[in-house]
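Bug #77: duplicate submission created two jobs. Keeping one. Sequence:
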Amino acid sequence: MVGNENSHTPVMVDEVVEYFGLPKAPLQHLVSIKDKKVFADLTLGAGGHASAIVTRGGLIIGIEADPELVKIARKTLNEVCKVYPACPADNLDESFIIFNDNFINLTSIVKNAGIDSLDGILIDLGVSSVHMDDHHRGFSFKNSQGDLDMRLNPGLQGVKASDLLNALPEDKLEMLFSDYMEFRSVKRLVGSIISYRRLRKIQTVGDFLTVIEKSGLSQKRSRKQKINVSTIPFMALRIAVNSELENLEIVLPKALSLLKKDGVFAVISFHSMEDKIVKDYFRNCKNNGKGMVLTEKPLVPKDSEIRKNPRSRSAKLRILKKL
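Kept job's structure:
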């Protein structure tokens, strides 16, 4: 695929393409709009999965909450459509329609696109590599001077990560971290947050790193752990800022209702809480006769993909077909 300076490597593209019933390779001929299947990418990101779909003759409705990623995705798809004949650059509206919005508004977004139903839906959870490589918005802890923000859409979201740490009472802070860390670690971390903010506000990435260090979590890191000790607290905070788990629970039934019969629903998750929500929802669909689970066990990236893209190692892909 054609790249750009803000590169992001999409996860398990081949598997998504296969389950969506699309050709393995980009098509070398023009595809008429009437012959195109319609897919919704609810987490468009930098446009990686969408690029694979449009070059194989699909029409994408792309939804992305982050306005900066919308710009990147639009540029990516424009460049792709200059190269591949299945999505010609002279008629881009027949290849992709992009909305800068939260995917919980899926129903109205699809209606505004003039679409009645969908052949497939993709949700690729978590944050983009573009976010992790941006050292100024607080998603990564590589820049200690960066603002502890973590909002996907600062224009619409009022509460930053630092606001939560400075304002939430002790019990709410414990709830924020308790799904991701053991009880003793949560108590130590929250105690450190309370102690730190009595002296000064938590404002930067460096402030939160200091809080984590003073909590003693770094001393609990196992030799077998492959992730930095700060990864889990940062992830839990980002999920809370963007209401990621709540929004996922909201969008799943909306997405299913928009799928055609035999339409395919694909969800890629990156941690156990996300995966559990998807697993439970797909199981309920199966038990209620609404869907067929095509992946009794989630698909995971091949070793070759993990070598090329280490960030893919925690990904899990679950697939449901609507009945």
